[in-house]
## 1
Amino acid sequence: MITQGFRKVSILLALCAMVVSCDKETSTAPGFDRGPLLENLGVNIIVPAYDSLARRAARLEEAAIAFTDSRTEENLGKLRDAWLSAYIAFQHCGYFNFGPADNLVFNSSVNTYPISKIKIDDNISSGSYDLNAISSNSAKGFAALDYLIYGPDPDAETVVELFESDDEASARRQYLLDVVEDLRSRCNAVYERWSPAGDNYLGTFVSLTGNDVGSSTGLLLNGAIQYYEADVRDNKIGKPLGIRSLNVPIPENCEALYAQQSILLATESIKGLQNLYLGKGKTDGVGFDDYLTALNARHNGDALASVIASQIDLALSKTAAIPEPYSETVEQNPDPAMAAYQELQKLLVLLKADMMSALGILITYQDNDGD
Amino acid sequence: MTAISLHSRLVTALKLAWYGPAPIAPLVTFRIVFGLMMAISVIRFWANGWIREFYIEPEVHFTYYGFEWVTAPGAVGMYGLFALMLASAIGVMLGWRYRLSAALFFLSFTYVELLDKTYYLNHYYFVSLVALLLCFVPANRAFSFDVLRKPTLATGEVPAWSVTILKLQLAIVYIYAGIAKLNAEWLFDAMPLRIWLPAQSHLPVIGGFLSTAFAAYAFSWMGALYDLTIVFFLLNARTRPWAYIAVIGFHMITWMLFPIGMFPFIMILSTLIFFSPAFHTRLLEGLAAVLRLGVNAIPRVDSNTIKLLPVPRIITGFMAVFFVIQVLAPWRYLLYPGDLFWTEQGYRFSWRVMLMEKAGYVVFHVEDPDTGRRWDVVPGDYLTPIQEKMMSTQPDMILQFAHFLEEKYRSEGMNDAIVRAEAYVTLNGRGSRLFIDDQVDLTRERDGFRHKDWIVDLNQ
């Protein structure tokens, strides 16, 4: 009897709560289905991004073979274009640092920089190297190719000379081919893992609709935000600027140092984040902005979804405004870079604190009794 | 007349609850289920790799104020500590060298909890308190290995205080958890459940319902009501069976919805203490039958005699202090200015469970006053993700990390590094905002119980 009374009282109280709160803009938060979000992210963004990377890496290999067969400045130009095109494609893939990319240690095996010039030169001279070893990460990948086809002196004639008539020209050609082959096969492998025609991680990805660490939303966001923080904000912009090194700039830490394309690549990378956030691939589909809108997440009076979208725009334009070559900018004219860094930082707060909090995504498996 | 008789009846009841005799059965059940749950918890913790992840791998630990001397003893030491914890939990369960087991369990468990406040959970605090109480009670004097070893220990009757303190401890947990929910955000904004429940929209059947505002309000109000009243319904014999169904239902729902670990099971089994001695006697006799032990596992007592037993003053005095501290501690936040959830001054050790969704980001700006150079330190370089997450929303931890950096640079020859924190925090769906005064050199600030005036006001 008392229990019945208890239940009645509880229901009554719950109803009171509803009435009390009716004047607020609570209404009902419509349920958001993460299924279509994951489907769009997987089908429309992630798999096409890896597909594009794999194709461009294949063309890079063709260009490298053509150049080593016939060492002309024209073929070098084509090789450089193919390299940049593949490197740009990679900028859109770095965020998917979970699942296949995590298992294959993909990111660090194709884009570790700064590279070790000594290691690369040694590898060429000795002709004995194992590109599969983790220790080889700083002697291969996009950054090693940057050094091989643009450096040390970017003058095309000088580079062609190194591959044509230098004492080690033939070893250098072989090393170029090996590095390109390693890169292409890795890009292909990660695509195969995702592809429905291959291992179909896409199917797994779309099916894990929970909100815990092991769910696709959890894996993707934890991986992407970590990548944004460490690889985009720090590695691409902050570290060369000396933000982390007693304010002493480290120009040699720039991405694409020899090609002097650091800012182009950083900008592409932020575009990749933008696409992921907005759910934009070949078509504009369901993204995290829609998710936040469905949850009616707010940020000091504004819609969190649009606050983040605007901050991405701002971070993008400030980054694009940094003068190239970045390796000179960090020493001679750091202010625009510092301004961009500040906006990247603000974006990180919005992503890591506000967005993750609003979405209720967990970051560890640890027991939790609510902060 | 009635007032006097009511008064004297109350006094008699209170006296009996402390000095009276009580059948030992409830205490024995409690000892067994608590020891068992603790043993399972330790094994689960170990199997999840958390000993390594939480206590061996991290380079830095966030100790509690006043307990800086508690340090992680290295890999071998940590595993040894957990092995001791496991063995002593089993000792408690079996009633084998019971007092020693209980004391060792309390010490090893509490030592580990004191290592790093990153992992503070109210239920760990609960376990420490209960483990301490178990050191005092004669829970081994029936159905135990100690009795097998020394049959003269066997008794069917224990002083009532030994059961009462466990009920009191549970009452404090529930009632304070309920009081903590009586705040505007919980009741009128249904926060943080309005954030947490929709995140479960993928669950079959109830997923859609959980996404509604109604669900968040219903859960918030029911939760508060449950916490505030459940103890009274458990104390009353007539309502007890229904109340216990509510206990199971409530904790199972929280277990399904939130990553709350062993806590629901610990509470479901601990609240058995409220059941009658007859219930526990039957339970233990059933257990004895299953285990093919003697039928006289629990000595019978004549429950009709009303008498008062001598209780050592030191016990009564200790328990009085122990519980008065617990009753007062949750109110200490009133001594601090500012919003409790925002500053977290007086937040811990107060049964504030599932009350807020808080997340933040902090970066440290370091300056060498000799050269004027300034640079950033990202905590992720030194902390695990969970440490970084916990630190980014808790001022005392931010301060500790600033001091850690000061020491690190001092050891590198930089004598007086200035460390400032730029921190942003979002609380219960408010947008992120500045958390710590980013002009303050934290190396000049000391931790302590004084108000931390370098926390930016929530509504500034």
## 2
Amino acid sequence: MSEVWIVAHDPVAGNALAGSARALGDAVNAISLGAGALAAADLTLLVEADPSTPVEAYAAAVAEVLASRAAKLVVLDSSAQSRLLAGQLAAHLGTSPVNATGVVSTDPLVVTRLAYGGLAVATEELASAVAVLVLAAGALPPADGTGAGAAEPLALAPSAGVRLLETRPRGGESVDLTAAKRVVGVGRGFAAQADLELARELAGRLGAELACSRPIAEGVNWMPAERYLGVSGATIKPDLYLAVGISGQIQHLVGVSHSKVIVAINKDAKAPIFAHADFGVVADLYQVLPALVAAL
Amino acid sequence: MRIIACFKAAPDDSDITVGADRTLDVSRAQPKIGSYDLNAIEAARQLADQVGGEVIGISLGGAALDNSKLRKDALSRGLDSLVAVAGDPDADSFQTATALAAAIGELGGCDLVLLGAGSSDRYAQQVGNQLGALLGLPTLNQVNQITPDGDGLRVLRLLENAEQVLGVTLPAVLSVTSGINTPRIAGMKDILAAGKKPVTDTVSALPPASSRTASVLAPEQVDRRHVLVEADPEDAARQLAQFLKTL
Ligand SMILES: Cc1cc2nc3c(=O)[nH]c(=O)nc-3n(C[C@H](O)[C@H](O)[C@H](O)COP(=O)(O)OP(=O)(O)OC[C@H]3O[C@@H](n4cnc5c(N)ncnc54)[C@H](O)[C@@H]3O)c2cc1C
Ligand SMILES: Nc1ncnc2c1ncn2[C@@H]1O[C@H](COP(=O)(O)O)[C@@H](O)[C@H]1O
């Protein structure tokens, strides 16, 4: 019987991952770092995580447990904390984690990952004694169903060196851009945060969600991180994607290239986005947007 | 403080061409320092200027690393010296981290290792995580702010729905976000000075790769209509509004 191990630090994400992991093996075992027993797993090893250390401090101890249980396949989700856990425990197990965007086959284990910043897709056959996968959102179809739900306590000690002093929620609404039929994306073509109002009005007219390029979310922080699109952000497949003041670098395009219709507004006729657009307008967004809102 | 900044030179993606069979031609692409790696170099420089100390750049790579223009480019952005480790530019995260750990060992250690959010080609976001584990040091990713605090550091870390404030003892390995700073643009003086900074060349043996790459192909292109309007803004807006109403 083939076993899959998951490592989880959050109950909701952990159960979702346990469901997805069923596609990879017959039994799904979990190591839960403060996330409680996972109903979707067959067996959960429950670690009571010390609130004064980040959960990632358990990586070395988790790797030891996985090695002693002869784990062959370990799967984590792609949250920041899971990525750090994955990289660390993989290092202790002597392997490289693979960021899987899809699973081609399980025996042998073949997965896809993005290469050259999203310009290409690499197909990889895992070759190490233990495989550690970081599953991208949507890499495996979501699967419901419950597991055997057994649970056993497991006492682990965190490694020293990092103390968690404070956790603050990040002011940001949660949004599911993947569900939106229409999306308006804003980029560095906007000169000031207040100017995004122009795009917000347009989105309102179109019944669209507002999204952005990465620098808008992570450089100037004008929009929350869950609203940026691309290789490291969200991937959308709406009926309409309208990009305003976005150049169309490959890392952004990866997130939007499966939109049914792509429209671009950019003042530079040579902007790469136009090569990927159904309808392009070469003009200053500050002149086009008010006129467009009026004409709709 | 002795700070190491890790960076990778990868083929500039704007020079990579895709063939009709979806294979990639990177042969004409110039090597370029990853844009997110520049944040690591900048963060290292700022911290060294604040508390005193030196910044050593380390990069593992192939022929691209022999390029003197590239070396000068890295050195002009705030490094005091550079260690160039010859090795496979397509090395996976574990191979890369193993080579970097060896190079850091040869340097006799350090107080802090900084890495970027992700390399511009693999973008695995993993080399720092793995390097920290291999060195057995406190390790964090997504570090958005670094403040000296007594013997250690206080860092702000960005998660999806929360931010954490953490105390970290030194030495430590931190991967920074792309928003932590705005990397400097080197001036003429920096570029001239870069030519005089010391560079050490080393070689590193790599462990075997964790996976075998069967193919690397560009995704299937979606056919687009490519209507382009270059009229005055009012007129263009009208045409676009008409198009949008047909959807
Ligand atoms: C490893 C890696 C991962 C990355 N991941 C992502 C990702 O997931 N998502 C992402 O978006 N990016 C990502 N990036 C960044 C990406 O490479 C680009 O830098 C980014 O997408 C550019 O954002 P932009 O188009 O808003 O800005 P710019 O490239 O600066 O483009 C601004 C555009 O606005 C136009 N413009 C300016 N003024 C006006 C005006 N008045 N009217 C109309 N048009 C105007 C300009 O002509 C220009 O084309 C990543 C980069 C790396 C290296
Ligand atoms: N070959 C390399 N040499 C030196 N540093 C690297 C190398 N590859 C990756 N890094 C560093 O590790 C970070 C994460 O890379 P990656 O895990 O490949 O996304 C990069 O931003 C660099 O700072």
